[in-house]
Model the fold of this input.
Amino acid sequence: MREPIVFVNGLFWPQSRAQISVLDRGFTYGDGLFETLRAYRGVVFRLEDHLDRCSRSARLIFLELPMTRQELRTVVCETLKRNLLSDAIIRLTVTRGEQEPGLVIDPETPPTVVIHARPFEALPGYSYEKGVRVSLFHNSAPRVGGIDSQIKSCNFLSQIVLRERARKEGVFEGIMIDSNKRIADGTTSNIFIVKNGILKTPALTEFVLPGVTRQVVLELAASLNIPYGEQDLMVDDVYQADEVFLTNTGIEILPVRQADRQVIGAGIPGPVTRRLRAFFLKTFGVSS
Ligand SMILES: Cc1ncc(COP(=O)(O)O)c(C=O)c1O
Done:
């Protein structure tokens, strides 16, 4: 396999020679942001939406991006090209850069930007044909203090621990519930339910990441005339749903067949989920 080429602060390196400092705040404090992007046939999916979220997150954590929007666009696409990839997952990471330990931010420190791409690997087909299982984790949704809505921060410890708990339970994803008992999102996914033909997803509170795929699904629902709402959802809404599915950049639209011990609907992917997924693939993808 060819060695991946990685962008680090303005230069492209073979992965084995790509380096950042041991004092990088992304490493010492998880002080940074990231985006996971998907390319279909050489085209980065919803690049502008990811860059919007990245810029917004940067503003919220007082981080000035060291590159213009156009520069970021160019290097994301260039990373894809240099790796000779067409169907790929691209990761853009921006950290606060190299600084002596201490929480105070030095505004003079240049941030670190790393972009790395790898071939896309789809989940096995049976995950989509049968649906996956999820566990609901009470009072687990993290939020960043003082920040009005979730940023996509490099500090993913909470999600990592929950994902491991989910894995130990033998399920695909852990669904986080906030301190108000509302369903938030998965460790790396947003959640949707369908009840009586209406598509519902948790409203964007400070606990819910505004997923790019979540937004795409709402747009697809609108064009298919599927009624939908963004609202508070509780545990019983999930248990009693006719259909449940997860979304993110990599899994696209993934049906859920069981939440905790509760079988969802008929225990197989339902008609709204299948319709949305088929439409998603027809519109954008080639992954299955
Ligand atoms: C906590 C969380 N929620 C939702 C998502 C889905 O976001 P997107 O659709 O932009 O991939 C992610 C993606 O990693 C995530 O980490």
The longest strand covers residues 32-40.
